[in-house]
Amino acid sequence: MIPFVDLKAQQKLIRSKIDERIKNVLDHGQYILGPEVQELEEKLKSFTNTKHVLCCSSGTDSLLLALLGLNLNPGDGVIVPAFTFASSAEVMPLLGAIPIFIDVDIDTFNLDISKLDATLETANNKGINVKGIMSVGLFGQPANMNPINDFAKGHNLWVLDDAAQSFGSQYNDIHTGSLCEVTSTSFFPAKPLGCYGDGGALFTDDENIYEIASSAHVHGMGRNKYEYERIGMNARMSTIQAAVLLEKLDIFPSELKKRQLVAESYSKNFKELSLDIKLPVLGKNTTSSWAQYTIVLPEHINRDRLQEKLKLRDIPTAVYYPIPLNFQKPYKKFPVSFAGLDNTYYLSKNVLSLPMHPYLSENDIAFITQNFYECVISD
């Protein structure tokens, strides 16, 4: 079977280096916040051109730490897409705050900037004090950040970019991590840059946000051990995960280029087959880290049946995401923009993600697309 994400092929390239990195950690014995964590933070600063990087225990924790650094209070509101993974929305209620769900753009799958006014008005009408906007770089490309940042500045809001899937991408030649006040990412193993467990990072040029987040990720610790300045959490990064990421970061630029070639090959093959499907679209002056290669099926295709047919041919697929967040049990009580979520509802019923990683060969892609074609026309 073609792997949906092939971590073994990557590991073969760098296994000896990872083994040496892990051996060094075992030798020095600093298993939490060891020197590799600081080394990783410095290298991530250079990669993203940001002043401050805080590595932590997961992408979700990096979002929480960012919100703490932004001083989000109970009852405050944050505008967030309804078409995304749960962690984008769950961090607000964890702090007693309120997610306000906005629709996404039908082409890029990211926040629909044309609906920001209506979404803010929805919150105001409900007496919710909106403090910020969470953009989400879904499937690999960042949201259209300039108009989002302009809208935020015009309404005295901050912007937090959830780059769990888009880390490594660029917008107007600026790296993800430097596109707004604060950015969070995930190093979950299946992400474009992933470790061998859980991990995450926060990026900001704002020293105050960084200082609060840094304190909060070690139980709210002050300058001296066992002296606490605030209520915090345990969100420290494992040194072994940092050691793994250091070796993966070295090959990350080349892997991003390979991901782009894989995406281009997919699109070329699909266009030659003349299928009635919608291929991924990149925004203007935007690159993607291609966390997923996601297509949109026409409504007449039975997605479940297609997935079963492809599975029988050893081709795995996935649906990100079949249920909009506002339909999920924990989030039904939170407000939805009166502009509606038409694109979210349509995409949740029709998106399909295909195998995507840097080590897919041209033959693999030809096999996937040809079998996809045969499964569709036989339906």
Description:
Helix content is 41%, strand content 13%. By secondary structure, the protein is an alpha/beta fold. A 7-stranded mixed β-sheet has the order 1-9-8-5-4-2-3, sandwiched between helices. Helix 1 runs antiparallel to helix 8 and helix 2 packs parallel to helix 8 (239-273). The longest helix is centred in the C-terminal third of the chain and has 35 residues, at 239-273.
Largest sheet: 7 strands, mixed
Task: Let me know the average pLDDT.
Answer: 97
> Could you say which overall geometry the principal axes of the C-alpha atoms support?
globular
- Tell me the quaternary state: single chain
Question: How many H/I helical runs?
Answer: 11
| Class from helix and strand fractions | alpha/beta
- For the secondary structure, the number of strands is 11
Which strand-content bin applies to the residues?
A: 5-15%
* Rg, Å, rounded: 21 Å
Tell me the span between the first and last alpha carbons. 22 Å
The helix/strand order is: HHEHEHEHEHEEEEEHHEHHEH
Helix content: 40-55%
- Going across the biggest sheet, name each strand in turn: 1-9-8-5-4-2-3
User: Would you identify the regions where 5 or more consecutive residues have pLDDT less than 50?
Assistant: none
